[in-house]
């Protein structure tokens, strides 16, 4: 696992694992959002819900990385011209695998059809990394009201205040790039 982490998370000038990433907020026709629940490889009790996405590869644009991650994590292939945004830029500092890590993320919105939802639900063409297979526990479509109740009940969702932002994006995007810094 450590070799894969070192490749995906190069050290920055301060010595922290640090990468750029792209994420996808996926809405189905019922305005439900698709999230994945995962846990820290070093602490199975530290779990949270998050959007599809991951690190950018050298030379990729944010939308290209988002499309690749979408295909890898859900099996759905979508043209980058369908992605809305970026709608959010997030700088985050967090603990993962007993290390303080940093990630700079651009979030895109994608609305999918029922047929595409079925591809995501089937997961037939997923191509997860060994680490993802180890730490990704669950995936599901959330009604935003249910997700808000789950957060109130103690579920962790990243980025913070996700439900509020997702409500804004569900019907359309106002063109404003939101910025969030979480440390």
From TrEMBL:
Cofactor(s) listed: Mg(2+)
Species assigned in the record: Arcanobacterium bovis
Matches recorded under PANTHER family: GDP-MANNOSE MANNOSYL HYDROLASE
Keyword Magnesium appears in the UniProt entry: yes
Limits of the Nudix hydrolase domain: 17-164
GO molecular function, one term: hydrolase activity
Name used for this protein in its record: NUDIX domain-containing protein
CDD domains attached to this UniProt entry: NUDIX_Hydrolase
Keyword vocabulary terms for this entry: Hydrolase, Magnesium
Keyword Translocase annotated: no
UniProt-listed InterPro entries: NUDIX_hydrolase-like_dom_sf, NUDIX_hydrolase_CS, NUDIX_hydrolase_dom
Gene3D superfamilies with a match to the protein in the record: Nucleoside Triphosphate Pyrophosphohydrolase
Pfam families referenced in this protein's UniProt entry, alphabetically: NUDIX
